[in-house]
Write a structure and sequence with these properties.
Layout lengths: L1 H11 L19 E3 L3 E7 L5 E6 L6 E4 L5 E7 L4 E9 L3 E17 L1 H4 L13 H6 L7 E5 L16 E2 L3 H5 L3 H14 L3 E7 L11 H11 L17 H7 L9 E5 L11 H15 L7 E4 L13 H15 L3 E4 L15 H16 L11 E7 L5 E6 L5 E3 L6 E4 L6 E2 L1 E5 L4 E5 L8 E4 L9 E3 L8 E2 L12 E6 L1 H4 L4 H8 L4 E6 L17 H16 L6 E5 L13 H17 L1 H6 L2 E5 L16 H18 L3 E3 L2 H4 L3 H4 L8 H18 L3
Parallel strand pairs: 1-7, 7-10, 7-11, 8-10, 11-12, 12-13, 24-25, 24-26, 26-27, 27-28
Antiparallel strand pairs: 2-5, 3-4, 3-6, 6-7, 8-9, 14-15, 15-20, 16-22, 17-18, 17-21, 19-20, 21-23
């Protein structure tokens, strides 16, 4: 019976505290109302019922009448910070809310790094969590509203959750970043703080955006937001806006903190526009164009390639967003990463740095710098040095330990580690390397995994930077022919991802679902690349015409590992050798002399793959070393995606064979990196 009652409460959308008035989950015992404002209070009663709202902090009663649908609302004047108070809502049968605090209310949103609780998740931990809990008794006026997960196609008026008082259980099960943000505000201001946590791990920013914002970007910037079959609920465009942001908009709040980005590394180029439009829609929803918005730099982590640069490229977009959004800021994290954990455990500093932005910009606190130093100018000296100056470092810079994370390059665009030293009396550093006598560019913290240690005197880290300013991928203007199977053909496959990463490239994609290296898959000779390759290459020659092509990429082998071909595995290497021979002998290759790249097939997850792939991963493990050897013998570059993805493939594939967009991005990233670092177009 108890379970049935709980289900009824959740489905009804409003939770009865007592009496006849029905209230949304946000309006309840232990809540925090924004101080010195007109706070929204709303609910449901019988249509036409007169409702009186009486706060204990005032002698005045507010009166309203439920409309024909039973909805009612008032704007309740709130005093300065204080409490606890009570609130009586009377429609003829009183509802009494107790333990209400008046203070500062912040909405805390994002993906798993914002959601990570103080007690940690799945073997992950938060540094200093025990000490934080031991000190919890000092903060009785911090209150928590932890929202449940809601992904929906229509805007909701209510959301699951309840306000909790700060006992050990509530604190340990709440966002570590949000808690330390609130705790720092309380330390500085000495007032109650209400924290509303609306986060979902692995979510993309598109899911947190309103439909109107997405439609605008589609029309003005031709950015597409497709909904794919099997898409994770937290990635569906607008689904989390509808279910987890829209229900909050009637609850008066001071501002937002935001920690997200891992789910959007693939489309870093437009992340600034997405963020700006999201913030505008949120502010419109709260009817407050000046609500502060403070975000967090994507924290250093290995991802699929520690030497890759998609993380710093996303961080660049985050900083562009801050420049586009009035009354915003960003907390630096270049010194806080963990190479083994995407959820870096040092959440205390992140919460503190977010709070410092709010304290200095919203609460009048002065005497300390809240913003990290940002690259300003670069001067290339005749002595082979690069002098870099920074903003937001009025008292200069300091290293904590030996300088690290600096790189420099010459005309060959090959970056090598560099030395750095502070120029005393200036907010500037000098970068040099004996290996690069004539540098053309320098950068800092510009790898997926790195650790920076350059700060201003307030201890805020320098943001990643590069002096050349443009993505290296954007400079590639080349012609690429791709030959693949379903992972290359599918929407958001590695070829589509490559097109996004290399906007200056012309890519002719000849990928086909079911294609093999040399077998008639399902009896179809058109799926046998060895039988169609001569015609395929003639088609490519016609497509590229006289200029020819610069790159040929082949990614095949998955379908050759099917159970149906288990007794023919000795033929795979022979077929592959013959396939490469046909490509090398075609007219397009003879006259163009393109760089030829073989991308190994990805692994399989035998637990998820169907019976037609039974044992496929083992066959791939045996097959791939031979294919790599043959490719190199024929003068081809090799990109091995099988072995790096082997231990994590299950995270990127729902069916055990085909990768989702994040996995496809890994393949595209490795191809793009090879082109950038090894080729000269």
């Amino acid at each position: 019976m108890k379970k049935i009652l709980i289900l009824f409460i959740l489905l009804s959308g409003f939770i009865p505290v007592s009496g006849k008035v029905r209230l949304p989950h946000l309006i309840g015992n232990h809540m925090v109302l924004q101080r010195d404002t007109m706070a929204g209070i709303w609910g449901e009663a019988a249509p036409g019922r007169r409702v009186t709202v009486h706060p204990s902090w005032s002698r005045k009663h507010l009166r309203t009448t439920a409309d024909s649908a039973g909805h009612w609302s008032v704007l309740l004047p709130t005093p300065g910070a204080g409490g606890p108070y009570s609130l009586v809502i009377d429609d003829g049968d009183k509802t009494v809310l107790d333990s209400i605090m008046i203070g500062e209310v912040w909405v805390c949103s994002g993906q798993s790094n914002m959601a990570l609780t103080l007690h940690g998740e799945r073997g992950e931990y938060v540094e200093g969590a025990l000490q934080t809990l031991l000190e919890a008794g000092r903060y009785p006026s911090i209150r928590f509203f932890k929202m449940g997960y809601v992904s929906t196609s229509e805007p909701q008026d209510d959301c699951p959750g309840y306000w909790a008082v700060p006992n050990w259980t509530a604190i340990s099960d709440f966002s570590a970043v949000a808690y330390h943000f609130g705790r720092t505000l309380t330390d500085a201001l000495g007032i109650p703080v209400g924290l509303i946590s609306a986060s979902w791990g692995a979510s993309s920013i598109e899911a947190w955006m309103s439909p109107e914002s997405l439609n605008k970007l589609e029309q003005t910037d031709s950015i597409r937001f497709p909904v794919r079959k099997g898409m994770m609920k937290q990635k569906i465009p607008s689904a989390l806006y509808n279910g987890m942001i829209h229900p909050l908009m009637r609850f008066t709040a001071r501002g937002f903190i935001w920690y997200q980005g891992e789910g959007n590394r693939a489309n870093y180029k437009v992340y600034d526009k997405l963020t700006a439009e999201m913030v505008k829609a949120w502010r419109d929803g709260w009817n407050n164009p000046y609500m502060p918005f403070y975000s967090v730099e994507l924290t250093p982590f290995r991802y699929d390639d520690p030497q890759g640069i998609d993380r710093p490229l996303l961080v660049e977009a985050q900083h562009r967003a801050v420049r586009m959004i009035p009354h915003s800021g960003i907390a630096g994290t270049l010194d806080l990463g963990d190479s083994t954990n995407i959820h870096a455990p040092r959440k205390i500093e992140i919460g503190q740095r977010l709070a410092l932005l709010a304290l200095t910009q919203d609460y009048g606190v002065s005497g300390i710098e809240a913003r990290g130093p940002v690259f300003q100018t670069a001067e290339f000296g005749s002595d082979g040095s690069v002098t870099v100056t920074f903003s937001d470092a009025p008292f200069g810079l300091r290293f904590q330990g030996l300088p690290s994370g600096f790189e420099i390059c010459g005309e060959d665009r090959v970056f090598v580690p560099a030395e750095a030293s502070i120029i005393h009396g200036r907010s500037a550093i000098r970068i040099t390397s004996k290996k690069v006598p004539h540098p053309v560019a320098a950068r800092y913290g510009f790898r997926n995994w790195c650790r920076g240690n350059l700060y201003n005197t307030s201890g805020i880290p320098v943001a990643p930077f590069r002096t050349d300013g443009d993505s290296p991928y954007e400079k590639l203007s080349c012609r690429i022919y791709t030959l693949g199977d379903s992972n290359g053909e599918k929407h958001d496959g590695w070829v589509d991802r490559l097109k996004i990463m290399l906007p200056g490239a012309t890519i002719h994609n000849n990928s086909r679902s079911g294609r093999t290296i040399g077998f008639d898959n399902n009896g179809d000779r058109n799926l046998n690349a060895l039988k169609t390759i001569d015609g395929d290459m003639a088609d490519a020659g016609s497509f590229f015409g006289d200029p020819g092509c610069d790159v040929i990429i082949v990614c095949l082998g998955t379908n050759d590992a099917k159970a149906a071909f288990s007794d023919r595995q000795q033929e795979v290497a022979e077929n592959f050798d013959r396939l490469l021979g046909h490509i090398s002998d075609c007219d397009l290759v003879i006259r163009s002399k393109p760089v030829c790249i073989f991308v190994t097939p990805p692994p399989m997850d035998d637990r998820k793959a169907g019976t037609k792939y039974t044992g496929g991963n083992g066959r791939l493990a045996s097959m791939i070393p031979h294919l790599k050897e043959i490719a190199r013998k024929n003068g081809w570059e090799v990109i091995d995606i099988y072995h790096p993805l082997q231990s994590v493939f299950g995270l990127y594939s729902s069916d055990g064979v085909h990768m989702g967009p994040d996995g496809q991005q890994i393949v595209a990233q490795k191809i793009a990196d090879l082109l950038v670092h090894s080729l000269d177009f």
